[in-house]
């Protein structure tokens, strides 16, 4: 009944508020979960005979429905999972899973596009509908993804109001059951959301354009979130994303107030796989991977329930030496993170560290050391993996500096992806983290390409945060770099037994 009342309100509102009907017939934009749909110019939303009509195929296919059109019978069939909807052009009766449903208006054809009543779409596809007066657009939200509750408040006067006011955030404390979101950051195809306590995320993908959507039930932004990261009066914000091969943007918002839900959207440049999990320390992690990658989860188990062996054999090359590949992340056109001062680039730090580690390890007669790059050169991730595979490396160590949307983020981390690399991560972190003297953020699972696609033991080291002004200065200190390089070298030699 609530849904019916809401849609009735929408219908009345369209004609009670001057200009709404006209707006819908003159280029109204359609948004699905805050992403504008690509609507052909000859398939715009229209108000016909008192009903708002929207292009069926554009909306249904973006929701994952299969649409079939039978020309001779003039029948449209929409199917997804156990739902089957059939409509006939010119008929006010639709069939939903075998039951007849009356429509406010008959579906019709306009330039080979079927237009159907917005009310019917909202009811049968589980959508909430909102009218945005500032942009003169219809906004559709999928309830299954944690969207709105169907309540709709029309503007006080007309449809040209540009005043949006501000949103009051729900109280976030233990008594309300709302968990504060403290920080959102993105680096190396990993989204990290820090919360005050464990949160179980709901994630899904959407297309046109490609994106990964992460909803955090029973959450709200921490009271001081806006002091550290972008957050406007309407509780919307975004991260500064630059030089990312796969991601064009990261945005976040208080998606709804009841129940309070923070939503984070990763805008992709192309379709990707992803994995979402909690790392056990109040972090929600979303790792992106290419569509052709094998995506594993941390601490995978074998079919018999056992855990993969953490040990790694250590063959030697033809000269009797063990082979170490040091990977200086980023390079050339890919600057990586940019320092808080805007003067220092991650690519330069990574290379300086790699060269120092190489210099130390080359003094060991039992090791052959190979760099993926020894100057300001750009390599694709797959090329870095190929270097290690071609030389049959025993270990692969990728060196990076971190970055965050919050200038307060700090500390050092060691990442592994495959269980066979966990022993290396443990040894590396034992030497590497204390050598930095920075906050120890621990050993973590990370679904990074270079440590996922390599077949030898592999780790990725995040030495510190360039986005933190104090740590930026530390990272580019010569004595600091020498000390950390020695720690990295000590970890490698102990793991390989050539100390």
Automatic annotation (TrEMBL):
Coiled-coil boundaries: none
Pfam families assigned to the protein according to its UniProt record, in alphabetical order: Amidase_3, AMIN, Cu_amine_oxidN1
InterPro entries, sorted: AMIN_dom, Cu_amine_oxidase-like_N, Mao_N_sf, MurNAc-LAA_cat, N-acetylmuramoyl_amidase_3
Statement: the UniProt record of this protein carries the keyword Signal: yes
GO function term, MF aspect, one: N-acetylmuramoyl-L-alanine amidase activity
UniProt domain MurNAc-LAA: residue ranges: 385-493
Compositionally biased region (Low complexity): 153-166
SMART domains tied to this protein: Ami_3 (SM00646)
Entry EC no(s): 3.5.1.28
Keyword Nucleus: no
Comp. bias regions, Polar residues: 167-176, 308-319
Keywords of this entry: Hydrolase, Signal
Region listing for Disordered, in residue ranges: 140-176, 296-319
Signal peptide range: 1-23
Descriptive protein name: N-acetylmuramoyl-L-alanine amidase
Organism of provenance: Paenibacillus brasilensis
């Amino acid at each position: 009944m609530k849904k019916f009342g809401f849609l009735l309100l929408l219908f009345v509102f369209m004609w009670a508020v001057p200009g709404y009907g006209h707006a819908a017939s003159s280029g109204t934009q359609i948004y699905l979960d805050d992403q504008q749909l690509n609507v052909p110019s000859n398939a715009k939303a229209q108000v016909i005979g008192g009903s708002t009509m929207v292009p069926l195929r554009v909306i249904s296919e973006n929701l994952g429905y299969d649409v079939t059109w039978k020309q001779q019978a003039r029948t449209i069939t929409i199917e997804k999972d156990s739902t089957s909807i059939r409509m006939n052009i010119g008929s006010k009766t639709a069939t939903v899973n075998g039951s007849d449903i009356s429509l406010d208006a008959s579906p019709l054809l306009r330039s080979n596009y079927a237009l159907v009543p917005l009310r019917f779409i909202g009811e049968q596809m589980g959508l909430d509908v909102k009218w945005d007066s500032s942009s003169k657009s219809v906004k559709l939200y999928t309830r299954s993804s944690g969207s709105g509750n169907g309540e709709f408040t029309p503007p006080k006067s007309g449809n040209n109001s540009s005043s949006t006011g501000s949103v009051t955030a729900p109280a976030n404390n233990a008594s309300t059951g709302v968990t504060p979101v403290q920080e959102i950051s993105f680096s190396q195809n990993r989204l990290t959301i820090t919360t005050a306590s464990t949160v179980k995320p709901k994630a899904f993908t959407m297309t046109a354009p490609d994106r990964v959507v992460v909803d955090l039930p029973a959450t709200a932004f921490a009271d001081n979130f806006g002091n550290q990261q972008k957050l406007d009066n309407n509780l919307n914000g975004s991260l500064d994303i630059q030089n990312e091969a796969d991601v064009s943007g990261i945005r976040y918002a208080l998606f709804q107030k009841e129940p309070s839900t923070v939503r984070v959207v990763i805008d992709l440049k192309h379709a990707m796989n992803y994995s979402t999990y909690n790392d056990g320390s109040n972090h929600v992690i979303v790792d992106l991977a290419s569509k052709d990658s094998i995506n594993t989860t941390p601490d995978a188990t074998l079919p018999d329930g056992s855990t993969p062996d953490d040990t790694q054999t250590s063959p030697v090359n033809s000269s009797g030496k063990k082979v170490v590949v040091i990977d200086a992340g980023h390079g050339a056109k890919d600057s990586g993170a940019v320092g808080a001062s805007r003067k220092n680039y991650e690519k330069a730090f990574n290379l300086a560290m790699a060269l120092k580690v190489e210099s130390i390890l080359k003094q060991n007669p039992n090791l052959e050391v190979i760099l993926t790059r020894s100057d300001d050169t750009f390599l694709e991730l797959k090329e870095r993996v190929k270097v290690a595979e071609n030389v049959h490396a025993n270990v692969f160590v990728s060196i990076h500096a971190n970055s965050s949307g919050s200038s307060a983020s700090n500390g050092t981390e060691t990442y592994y992806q495959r269980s066979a690399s966990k022993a290396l991560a443990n040894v590396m972190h034992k030497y590497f983290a204390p050598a930095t003297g920075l906050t120890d953020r621990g050993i973590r699972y990370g679904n990074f390409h270079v440590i996922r696609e390599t077949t030898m033991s592999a780790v990725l080291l995040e030495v510190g945060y360039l986005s933190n002004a104090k740590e930026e200065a530390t990272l580019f200190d010569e004595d600091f770099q020498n000390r950390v390089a020695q720690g990295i070298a000590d970890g490698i030699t102990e793991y390989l037994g050539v100390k």
